[in-house]
Each structure stands twice: as structure tokens, then as C-alpha cells.
Design goal:
This protein is mainly beta. It folds into 2 domains: 14-114, Sandwich (Jelly Rolls), CATH 2.60.120; 146-294, no CATH class. 8% of the residues lie in helices and 35% in strands. The strands form 5 sheets. Strands 12, 13, 14, 16 and 19 form a 5-stranded antiparallel beta sheet that branches. Strand 17 and strand 18 form a beta hairpin. The longest helix is centred in the C-terminal third of the chain and has 12 residues, at 283-294. The relative contact order is 0.13.
Length: 317
């Protein structure tokens, strides 16, 4: 039997190529910042579908597209892409991929949310949230517990327990990532960014970037969660300052850190400390406790007064 005959016989049982139906749509957007959201549920394992959003002219600086997933796909519920249009109207290309003969109910359910108010009529178009020259993004070569992308500054890194971003600087944080201590599983430290009123980014886990770079789009707050074994061994606390002067302190796991006015996030501090009775804190957690002890930006800790032993008399002093 020849090689070609063996290949022909193998084809019926070796179905490695599946045909998909693709439909392309041009979406016209005005000046502003938008979020394209796939509102579908999680697709079944045997259903291959997805959405891609792209610019029609990659060299056009007027429109920028950035997705939260590193592969760029919007495949299931909550997957999103940010679109910034400096001067509208402008068009983006939305391509939907579905299996041939797929049920209509499996088609992606897309929504478009406006994250910024339209500019007043007659106002000159300008890059959003840019009040001065933008510096190039810095590439950090050393590991850090927290990395934040700060407006007009680039990426900066800090340890847990230290402020990342500068309170009172009036420079917004546009995105961040967290790196879990060595004895915490990456999936046990997750976080979200506040994008709008009642709207959060998808959950990111340790090491993943949450937010945007190069779009001048500040995040409006954050939420951090410890789960699994990490939640049993560690306490999580975080504080933040915002461009409107608000300061929120000592929020716990899964608390949403945002202001009533949805002001942009300016600085944040995240602390991971061992729970009482945990005698083997990780090195990062120990550094966080030491940093928290030496910070001058917080009030002095209140000293606990020891309780008198049973049977002893209180001091007359």
C-alpha cells in the first residue's frame, strides 16, 4: 500500500480540521473609550466559537484596541476589549467565528459600554487623560510583588506593604499585576480592576496584568481576593488613594475599593501578613510586615494592653 493510499484511508477517522463560519462586522464608534463585552455564558467543550476585534488600519493612531486576555480572544462571558477613539467617528472590525450548523442560541452576545462621556460639541479632540508628555514604558528587570502602570510614568514595582503610586501625585494608575509569595498558589491570589459603575474587569490571577497600557485609561479602583489554603494562613488588607482626594484604608479580601464618584485610582498598598498562630511566614510576607512597621505614611499602631493574670491585683499606678 502506497503512502498516499494510507493517508486517504486515515482521513475519515483522523478528523483534525473543523470548518468554521466567520462573519465580519464594521462597528462605528464616536470619540471616547468603550468596552466591548462578550455577555455569553461559558461555551460547551464541543463548541468552538469566539470573537476578535481589530482596527481596520493598524497604522492609524486615532484608534487603539486592547484586550484583557493575552491571546486577544473574546470566547466566553466576561471576556472584554477596550477601544479608545481619539477623534470619531471611527470603525473597528468585529469578526465572529462559529461552527457550521451551530445553534442560534450559541451565537456570542456582544455588548458595547461607553466608559467615558462624549466631548462637548465643538470641543477639540485630544488624547484622553494626558496633561503632559508621556514617558516611555519602563521595562522592569527585577522581580516585584506589585507592578503598576502609572500615567505618564510607566511601570513601577514595589513590595507588599509599600505604597505603589504616590498619594497626592494626581497621576492615575492604569493597570497592575500581583505576584504571589512562594508558598501561595497563583490561583489563590486573584484581583480585578474597577472599569465603571458596577463593572469590573475579569478576574486575573498571580502574574497576570490587569488593566491597560498605552491607552491613557485609568482604573477606578480594585478588588483583591485570597482563597483556598492562602486564605486560611494569611490576612489580606489593602488601602488606596484616589484623584479626588479620597483615601480608603484596611479593606479586606473581596472588598471593592472604589469611591462613590468613581474617581481614578492614584496609589495603593496591599499587605499579606500571616494569621495568628502561623509560625512559618513566607519571605515576602515577612518583608511586608517589616515595611508596614517602618512606614511613615500611616498612624502609629495602637499598643495592646496585656490583660492581668487571674488572681493578680491591678497596679495602683
Amino acid at each position: 500500500m502506497s503512502q498516499s493510499e494510507r493517508q486517504i484511508q486515515a482521513r475519515p477517522s483522523d478528523n483534525r480540521v473543523q470548518e468554521l463560519r466567520a462573519s465580519a462586522h464594521l462597528m462605528t464608534l464616536d470619540t471616547g473609550i468603550f468596552c466591548l463585552v462578550n455577555g455569553s455564558g461559558k461555551p460547551a467543550d464541543d463548541i468552538i466559537s469566539g470573537v476578535r476585534v481589530s482596527v481596520t488600519n493598524p497604522s492609524d493612531p486615532n484608534i487603539t484596541v486592547a484586550s484583557f486576555r493575552p491571546d486577544g480572544w473574546l470566547s466566553s462571558g466576561g471576556d472584554s476589549a477596550l477601544i479608545r477613539v481619539l477623534e470619531g467617528p471611527a470603525q473597528v472590525l468585529v469578526t465572529i467565528y462559529q461552527p457550521i450548523g451551530g445553534a442560534p442560541e450559541n451565537a456570542p452576545k456582544l455588548r458595547v459600554l461607553r466608559l467615558s462621556e462624549p466631548a462637548p460639541e465643538g470641543a477639540a479632540a485630544a488624547p484622553l487623560n494626558v496633561t503632559g508628555p508621556r514617558r516611555p514604558v519602563m521595562v522592569l528587570t527585577e522581580p516585584h510583588d506589585i507592578i503598576a502602570h502609572v500615567q505618564r510614568t510607566g511601570d513601577i514595582g514595589r513590595a507588599f506593604g509599600e505604597w505603589v503610586g504616590t498619594p497626592g501625585s494626581q497621576m492615575a494608575i492604569e493597570g497592575f499585576s500581583l505576584t504571589a509569595p512562594k508558598d501561595i498558589e497563583p490561583g489563590d491570589l486573584t484581583y480585578q480592576a474597577v472599569l465603571g459603575r458596577g463593572w469590573m474587569s475579569p478576574w486575573s490571577e498571580s502574574g497576570q496584568f490587569c488593566g491597560s497600557r498605552g491607552m491613557a485609561l485609568p482604573i477606578l479602583g480594585l478588588r483583591v481576593k485570597l482563597s483556598g489554603a492562602a486564605a486560611k494562613r494569611y490576612d489580606l488588607r489593602y488601602s488606596a488613594t484616589f484623584l479626588d482626594g479620597t483615601k480608603l484604608e484596611e479593606l479586606g479580601s473581596e472588598d471593592i475599593c472604589e469611591t462613590s464618584t468613581l474617581a481614578a485610582l492614584e496609589a495603593m498598598r496591599i499587605e499579606i501578613t500571616p494569621k495568628a498562630g502561623n509560625t512559618a511566614p513566607s519571605e515576602p510576607a515577612t518583608k511586608a510586615a517589616a515595611a508596614a512597621k517602618g512606614r511613615a505614611t500611616t498612624a502609629a499602631p495602637v499598643k495592646a494592653v496585656p490583660k492581668p493574670a487571674k488572681g493578680s491585683k491591678p497596679s495602683s499606678r
